[in-house]
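Input (structure):
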């Protein structure tokens, strides 16, 4: 799916309307901070953040089974479940029996997310992040929730046929007040498959403009995207992943952070935004391959355990060797970036390709989280989508 190009005049009008203030997070004269990254934020960087995870339980799970229930706090927290292979929440109930997540009801629930669950949760590949509630109606408030975890076969997404172990972790997250500004910090990686790779600026103007446009869409939710640093990286291209198999993304993470201390990002909460070449996603069940314009490894994504990938990945060319690079306009790049950032922060498609709707009350499909964001007349996030996004534990509150 290709975005329809926007005219330069239209982009210019929009860009002027947005105002230069939106660009305040990006510097015109970047300064180098390491051998491979260029800092692009003019303001002094906040102290790098490490998110603390409390291990609540290490639980064995028999083949084809679910874990014993674990009592977890219910409000102002994020859950993380780690395993070898793939993981999902099987069920989540409060003490009065109110269902947040119900066990799979049909085969359709054995997919990348549970479709019939009152609160949607998505499959974790090695590591799953869960920030709830994700759907309307909001469940009744409670102090505790009983969670059962399930291991899934990463190839079929069905219950794992081998026994294993899961680690269930909880992290406290800040509850912002209404109107409190929240910042998503990002690091941008541009690979050789992107048209921006050879541009002399650390952040090419079209990328800066796309970020400004995304910020105009985030502003009604008092959110903004701020790029901390950027780098070029020669990497695997095509970037081939399968549903449930992200090893190419994990290798890309290792490569992008190879020059950082300890080989990892200095801050747990920075979102890697990768302007890649070809993105190829294989479905081992249907044997079909797709070349999405963007992908995010989980909904929400972020704060993974060791050996798991996160981030936002954007296509730069088709996978056919003769495919030209995509000459992104700022507006079309912004639509893909805004859409994928919505997934990263916890928002599902408002309308799926098959016409299926999401579980938020105020979405009609005429928003950025339509499965085809290029088809929307007036791109925006709804209030419900922005409310979900404001729960993500990677946000920095001002
Ligand atoms: Zn999407």
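Output (sequence):
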């Amino acid at each position: 799916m290709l975005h329809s190009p926007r005219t330069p005049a239209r982009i210019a009008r929009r860009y002027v309307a947005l105002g230069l203030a939106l660009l305040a997070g990006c510097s015109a004269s970047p300064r180098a901070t390491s051998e491979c990254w260029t800092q692009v934020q003019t303001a002094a960087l906040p102290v790098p953040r490490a998110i603390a995870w409390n291990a609540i339980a290490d639980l064995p799970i028999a083949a084809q089974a679910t874990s014993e229930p674990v009592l977890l706090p219910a409000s102002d927290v994020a859950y993380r479940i780690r395993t070898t292979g793939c993981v999902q929440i099987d069920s989540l109930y409060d003490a009065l029996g109110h269902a947040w997540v119900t066990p799979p009801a049909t085969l359709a629930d054995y997919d990348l997310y549970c479709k019939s669950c009152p609160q949607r949760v998505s499959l974790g590949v090695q590591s799953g992040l869960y920030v709830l509630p994700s759907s309307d109606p909001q469940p009744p408030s409670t102090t505790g929730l009983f969670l059962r975890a399930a291991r899934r076969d990463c190839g079929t997404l069905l219950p794992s046929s081998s026994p294993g172990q899961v680690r269930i972790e909880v992290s406290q997250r800040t509850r912002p007040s209404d109107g409190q500004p929240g910042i998503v910090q990002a690091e941008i990686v541009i690979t050789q498959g992107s048209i921006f790779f050879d541009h002399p600026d650390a952040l090419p103007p079209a990328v800066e403009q796309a970020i400004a446009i995304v910020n105009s869409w985030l502003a009604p939710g008092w959110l903004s995207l701020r790029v901390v640093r950027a780098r070029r990286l020669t990497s695997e291209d095509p970037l081939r992943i399968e549903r449930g198999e992200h090893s190419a993304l994990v290798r890309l993470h290792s490569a992008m952070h190879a020059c950082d201390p300890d080989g990892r990002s200095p801050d747990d909460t920075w979102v890697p935004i990768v302007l890649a070449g070809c993105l190829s996603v294989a479905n081992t069940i249907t044997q079909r391959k797709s070349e999405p314009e963007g992908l995010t490894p989980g909904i929400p994504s972020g704060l993974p355990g060791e050996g798991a990938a996160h981030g936002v990945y954007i296509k730069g060319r088709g996978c056919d060797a003769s495919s030209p690079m995509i000459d992104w306009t700022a507006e079309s790049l912004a639509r893909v970036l805004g859409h994928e950032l919505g997934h990263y922060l916890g928002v599902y498609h408002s309308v799926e390709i098959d016409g299926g709707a999401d579980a938020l009350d105020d979405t009609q499909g005429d928003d950025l989280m339509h499965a085809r964001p290029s088809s929307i007349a007036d791109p925006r996030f709804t209030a419900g989508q922005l409310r979900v996004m404001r729960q993500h534990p990677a946000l920095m509150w001002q």
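Notes: The two ends are 38 Å apart (CA to CA). The first strand starts at residue 31 and ends at 32.
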